[in-house]
Amino acid sequence: MKQVSDVNDEWEPLSGSFLLERDHPHDSDPDVHLMVPRFDVADPELSIVIPALDEILTIGPFVEWCCQGLRHANVRGEILIVDSSTDGTAEIAVSKGARVLKTPKRGLGRAYIDAFPFIRGKYVLMGDADCTYDFRNIEPFMEKFRSGHEYVMGSRFRGSIEPGSMPVHHRYFGTPLTTWILNLLCGSQFSDIHCGMRGITRTALANMNIQSQAWEYASEMVLKSVRMNLRTAEVPVRFLKDPEGRFSHHKRTGWFSPWAVGCTSLMTMLIYRADSFLFGPGLFLLCAGLLLTLPLSLGPVTLGPIKLALNGMLMGLTMTVLGLYGVFMAMLARVFLDYTGAATEELLGIFSYTRSVTRSVGAGIAGLALVIPFVLQYFRPDYNLLNGMQSVTYLGVTGLLFLVAGFMNFTFTLALHAAALIVRRK
């Protein structure tokens, strides 16, 4: 860690006591510099952590808003600006009483990752430095924190949205749609997953281990809050339009930026809820495939005007294999995304090594018993299965299903136990 001490006389390097924290990742990062105001706050209860990029027009008023909010909420707090600007944002923020962590421009999510070792408060409040979220009113967040909540989402839809502050396609299409998809995948009831003003305890943030480098961090946080069974609440917030003369980062980047963010958010949802996304369709295919395959084991079946024969059975076999694969992949994903350990222990109980391998061997033996006559029939002089006994052919397909299922169950059991070792080691 490197401390800057030559910007102006309104701030000074942090005292040596902070240097006792030697093990954070920035000890060897020469690109990260901490700037501390002369009148710094000791032992803050709340850390307001805000990424900033060229916010010279708004950073001064924003820090003043934060100070007003802290006084009004009667909370001892620090303001930590994570700055990647090329203008005078950092100097203004420090002169107003904020700490500033100077970092390279590496993405919004990365800004929070870089900031974590420097966060001193028990609670963390996040947001934007553009004066679109009203940080003069942070009392609702503190009330939720002090009542035991670990993750507190702001909601613009439950609060107020100033006319002209949110594009129509954001307000009535993008945000409601992605919020609905996330709630569907998670079984949650969030009203505004893209609200930038949100709070979390420092302990929960550490356990959350944010990985996203860019905008998708917002969806990752929401998804992990559900995964971790955090005690969660929503509070209404005011959303204001950009101050005169300022253009949002989406506008600076171009018209495609919001759509790219939306697609990235959807990708993040599918990754962090891969188990939910895969398990339902996989289970449906598995059950439908078995219903189509097993009744045909002894030959064709007629259902009114519909006659199901070998082609239908092969379709059922395909559906069963695809479904079983989806279910197994969903369960593996659940292990890797298990932050409480409960799901992993449950799966290890169901697929304990000895019992699961025994089931695999049993399925393999049954499959071989059905497949061997099928193979022998093929080695008739004409090498034509269709001229042989129908019962042997249909039972042979069922045998193939048992062989494939047994092999897949065995390989999944090995992968499950290996994954559990990795997760436990972490």
Can you give a write-up of this model?
The protein folds into two domains: 2-272, Spore Coat Polysaccharide Biosynthesis Protein SpsA, Chain A (Alpha-Beta Complex), CATH 3.90.550.10; 274-425, no CATH class. The chain contains 14 helices and eleven strands. It has helices spanning 59-73, 89-95, 108-115, 139-146, 168-186, 202-208, 217-227, 249-253, 257-272, 274-293, 310-336, 342-350, 353-378, 390-425, and strands at residues 2-3, 33-35, 46-52, 77-83, 99-102, 123-126, 151-161, 198-201, 232-239, 301-303, 306-308. It has a nine-stranded mixed β-sheet, with helices on both faces. A two-stranded antiparallel sheet has the order 10-11. The two termini are 26 Å apart. 38% of the residues are buried. The model is unreliable at 1-26 (pLDDT under 50).
Q: Which terms summarize this structure?
A:
Spore Coat Polysaccharide Biosynthesis Protein SpsA, Chain A; single chain; 426 residues; disordered N terminus; 13% strand; two-stranded antiparallel ribbon; 14 helices; alpha/beta; 9-stranded mixed beta sheet
